[in-house]
Amino acid sequence: MSTTPAGWEVVIGLETHTQLSTASKIFSGSATTFGAAPNTQANVVDLALPGTLPVMNRGAVEKAIMFGLAVNGTIAPHSVFARKNYFYPDLPKGYQISQFELPVVVGGKVGIVLDGVEKTVQLTRAHLEEDAGKSLHEGLDTMGVSGIDLNRAGTPLLEIVTEPDMRSAAEAVAYAKALHGLVTWLGICDGNMQEGSFRCDANVSIRKPGAPLGTRCEIKNVNSFRFLERAIEYEIRRQIELIEDGGRVVQETRLYDADRDETRSMRSKEDAMDYRYFPDPDLLPLVIDAAWIERVKSAMPELFEPMRERFMSQYGLSMYDAGLLTSSRSTARYYEDVVILGADASLAAKWITGTLFARLSLDGLNIDRCPVNSGIFASLLKRISDNTINSTGAKQVFENLWNAPQNQDGMRSLQSVDNSIAKHGLEQVSDTGAIEKIVDDVLAANQKSVDEFKAGKEKAFQSLVGQVMKASNGKANPAQVNEILKKKLSG
Ligand code: ADP
Ligand code: MG
User: Fold this and answer.
1) Which of 12, 122, 203, 208 to mutate for ligand 1's pocket (most ligand atoms within 8 Å of CB)?
2) Pocket, ligand 1, Cβ cutoff 6 A
3) Closest among 452, 454, 488, 451 to 468, alpha carbons compared
4) If residue 106 lies in a helix (H) or strand (E), which one and from where to where?
5) Which residues are 82's β-sheet partners?
6) What is the CA radius of gyration of the chain?
7) Bridge-based pairing state of the strands 252-257 and 262-268
8) pLDDT tens, position by position, 442-454
């Protein structure tokens, strides 16, 4: 996948802006909901009217603490909000409130797996800051003006910065995906990349292996995993060509243009110095004591790694299945609900990762929107376990339930399943006499397969099983069919 020519090493560090999902802004009481009419969610603080003062949102801090705990970072007992000064029309104060020398989270790590190889990406820090507003150009350019929408101004962000630890575009994407999985699992960010809730800046440089770090370029605001990969790939090629042609990389900020699949220079890189950072005199230092950390910790969801381990030991699942079932919190919750409601744990794993996942992806649905609820699904699996239906019949019932969703829970869900079984005549045939009769007919009509089986062809047996199942309209109990066939063939 990577196009790095031999002799070069790629170095990448990512800075990710995750929008924290709080109802109100980080320093004001305005709402943060996406998509409202321009400037309807900007109050006097967001507009930077003189005399207004910021008030810190504790919810945003708690989300940052939760993140720090999840990545095993250090939660700073004392951190400081700083002003990052620059002019831009969407920043009416003339500065952004951020954290500089003392961020709320220091260090930590995120594990990634790429082509089966595990690797750890070290985090440098994570700091709280406010988002800026947005300039609007669409529909206004013919009038020669731009609009300013301050709805986003003051939306809480946690900027998560890595060490320059990644060595390919694919690794950077694996990290971004792992981080995205983590913040959405924790519920601190909605993860919606189209709406800009999760955006990455990629710092890319190249060097000869073993040489000191090369000069980097920073690609700003990439909001899809695919673009991230392509932007980095392009940037690597550009830098290598530049150096091989005798030039040198200039430190700068670049933008990725998806239409042309290239990065373009936006501005020369500014240094921290240029921003004249200083502690914001309007805000007290952020003090986080042990008791606060404890409170946040006790409200945290179980993380996916321990949950995966627990699924393996508690339910006897393979690492692979446990991984699939913990791919999101809703998937894990669905699985555990089904098991708690009485379904067999390994049958549930098989059906959820197989039939259910396939059906969800066919309709492009997330498990949160699954039309077959966990209660009904558990009831369906119970009817397989108690031999009322076989898996062919169960697939049919599942399809019926999918198309005519039933919302009842508890006892009534079993009734829905039973109604569907009865309505479509899907009860499994477990009557030995009836199956023996079908087997006899099939054996008589398939002498060739019988001979082949006796000559040692194992496949002939499977073909006979198939014939019997077909003759029973898919309703025979497959275990019994196997047993009776074996008996008759060896008799
Ligand atoms: P700034 O805040 O000015 O963007 P930082 O020093 O905080 O700069 O680094 C930002 C990001 O760039 C970090 O993720 C860091 O790991 C990464 N980085 C720093 N130097 C390099 C380099 N030479 N090549 C690639 N990434 C780098
Ligand atoms: Mg930066």
Assistant:
1) 203
2) 11-15, 161-164, 203-205, 213-214, 216
3) 488
4) strand 105-106
5) 98, 279
6) 30
7) antiparallel
8) 999 999 999 998 8
Residue 227's identity, in one-letter code, is F
Ligand positioned closest to the Cα atom of 270: 1
pLDDT in tens, 257-297: 989 999 999 888 777 778 999 999 999 999 999 999 999 99
Query: Measured in angstroms, how far is the CA atom of residue 14 from the centroid of ligand 2?
Result: 9
Centre of ligand 2 from the C-alpha of residue 484, in Å: 70
pTM: 0.84
205 CA to centre of ligand 1 in angstroms: 10
In this predicted model, what pLDDT tens digit does every residue of 217-234 receive, in sequence order?
Answer: 999 999 999 999 999 999
**Secondary-structure class of domain 432-490 per CATH:** mainly alpha
CA of 402 to the centre of ligand 2 (A): 48
Position in ligand 1 atom list of the atom nearest CA 271: 3
Domain limits, CATH 1.10.10.410, in the chain: 432-490
Which residues pair with residue 198 across a beta bridge? 18
Question: Residue 149's beta-bridge partner residues?
Answer: 134
Q: How far is CA 157 from CA 15, 82, 130, 319, 373, in A?
A: 12, 14, 6, 34, 35
CA angle 223–228–232, rounded 5-degree value? 145
Q: Are 428 and 476 in contact (CB under 8 A)?
A: yes
Q: Enter the DSSP assignment of 326.
A: T
Whole-angstrom Cα distance, residue 30 to residue 42?
Answer: 6
Contact (Cβ atoms closer than 8 angstroms) between residue 183 and residue 191:
yes
Q: Phi first, then psi: what are they for 195, rounded to 5°? A: -85, 0
d(CA 355, CA 350) in angstroms, rounded, equals 8
Q: What angle, 0 to 180 degrees and rounded to 10, lies between the N-to-C axes of helices 391-403 and 374-385? A: 160
